[in-house]
Structures are given as C-alpha cells and as structure tokens.
Amino acid sequence: MRRSLTDIRFLLNAFPTTWQTELSLQREGQRVPNLTHPAVPIGGEDLATVLSLVGEQRRFEGFEPRDHVTVAESLDLVDFEAAAEVRTEN
Fold it and tell me: CB-based burial of residue 72 (10 Å sphere; 0-12 exposed, 13-18 middle, 19+ buried)?
C-alpha cells in the first residue's frame, strides 16, 4: 500500500496540473498573431465587399424589426445600465 501511494504521488507531481497547462496554452496562444486573409481590404466596414448573396432579403411589413438588445430591454429581461456599473470596494 505504501509503495502504490508513493507511485501515485510521483505521477501527480511529474505532470503539470490542468490550470498550469491551460495557462501555458493561453500565453502561447496570445503570442500568435490574428492575421486576416491578404484579400481583405484594410480599413473600416465602408471598404468591405459582398462576395455573394444567398436568397432574398427579408421584408417586414407592418412593423420595424428590432435587434436582440432592444427586445430584451423592452421585456425587462436585462438591465444593461446596472450591469455596466463598476463597483469598487474600499
């Protein structure tokens, strides 16, 4: 029994823990540049080009479509103002 516990302790100490591995991978990943394709124009959305359209653009009759933020706020599902407050403790 004593020998098996020693073996287990050795194995646990021989390999880095999960969080150490994740931290190491995160650091290495942050060193990799996030490059775009060379054909992508440099600049804002006004320089973007549409490569293709599939189907027809949906037309809404009788109402103006709203984005998810507007819908969620109108239904009191979220409170972005409260969420945006930054609290500091003294």
Answer: middle
Going by C-alpha positions, the residue among 62, 60, 59, 84 that lies closest to residue 73 is 84
Contact call for residues 48 and 41 (beta carbons, < 8 A): yes
Q: What is the pTM of this model?
A: 0.36
Measured CA to CA, the distance from residue 78 to residue 65 in angstroms comes to: 19
Tens of pLDDT, residue by residue, the chain (90 residues): 566 777 777 777 766 677 788 888 899 989 988 888 888 888 888 888 888 999 998 898 999 999 999 999 999 998 888 888 765 444
Q: Is 34 within 8 Å of 40 (Cβ atoms)?
A: no
Q: Which helix (H) or strand (E) holds 24?
A: helix 18-31
Contact 80, 73 (CB under 8 A): yes
* Residue-range domain boundaries for the chain: 1-35
